[in-house]
Amino acid sequence: AMARHAGPRLPLIVKNLIPTLSSVFESQRVTTTAFFAELLNSNVVNDLILLETMMDNMTGRQKDSCLLVRMLALRGLGNIGTGSPEKVRKHGAKLLASMVNGMDDKDDPNNLVALEAMSSLSKLLDHVEERDIQSMLLHIAIRIRPFFDSEQPDLRQSSIVLFGNLSRFSQGDCEVFFEQILNGLVTLLLHLQDPKPEVVKACKFALRMCGPSMGCEGLCDMFLNHLREDRSLHYGEFMNNVCKHLMQSYPEMLNRLISTNLFYFKSSWVDIRAAAPMFIGFLVLHVDEDHCQQVDLDPLISGEW
């Protein structure tokens, strides 16, 4: 409301609030950071030439002893992608570094800072220079991968959406990201059976985005046609066809795909636990005899990992 109705008064308000960002009282730091974070959602800060000042102050809060302040500071930096998207390109390297630092926060037991960093980074990616993200692409992909199986649905959703967004930057140099797509492929396909609809939606999005980088036209077409948000999925039939394309294009990956699936035999989610052996069954069904000989049957029969 203040951004809309009190624009001319904001520079003085911001000036008077900046000292409280260093207040000894945690509640004052939280309140001021929250106010600045939401203000950055509006282009008014750009019109009033406040953007750089507020951005620098948000960046300075990343070392705050209060987890909530660190989280809100990242939210503010991410909101620049909404409020002043035309400025993101100029400050891209600085903003990306802040998000990566947030994901690496060492004092974040519930991953709240990491969650905010992932959500904010997804907002910024539409506006950053490709060269700025390329140098961090691999680090971010490896860092977010463990969150795909988090017990917290919002962490699963945000990390998977971010992974899909990152894949856009892989298509010019497929080798950089291709290995990460292969590492995450089984997980994304199994989480199409996730108990949370928002995570299923995120997986559909990520697989559609990753398809063009996989070098298999049939698989890419399947992801685009069958994983639309508005379309229900016949999972068994879909996986049968996916495995056919995988074994035609990447038969040497059979053991790797099987061993990743074996990990999910003990998943806490029953639908994913059921999907993993079905996935393996379709892989073995469609692989040619030469590659089938490479399969180590002992862990497969015992269901151990």
Fold topology:
Elements: H1 2-5, H2 10-17, H3 26-39, H4 44-47, H5 51-60, H6 67-83, H7 85-88, H8 92-103, H9 112-124, H10 130-134, H11 137-144, H12 153-166, H13 174-190, H14 197-210, H15 217-226, H16 235-249, H17 254-263, H18 270-286, H19 289-292, H20 297-302
Helix pairs in contact: 3-6, 6-8, 6-9, 8-9, 9-12, 12-14, 13-14, 15-16, 16-18, 17-18
Helical content stands at: 55-70%
Helix and strand pattern: HHHHHHHHHHHHHHHHHHHH
Q: Give average pLDDT, whole number.
A: 91
Tell me the count of domains: 2
**What is the number of helical segments per DSSP (H or I, 4+ residues)?**
20
Give unreliable regions as ranges. Answer: none
Radius of gyration: 22 Å
Say how many strands there are. Answer: 0
Structural class: mainly alpha
| Biggest β-sheet description | none
How would you sum up the global shape?
Answer: elongated
How large a portion of the residues is in β-strands, by DSSP E?
Answer: under 5%
Measure the end-to-end span.
55 Å
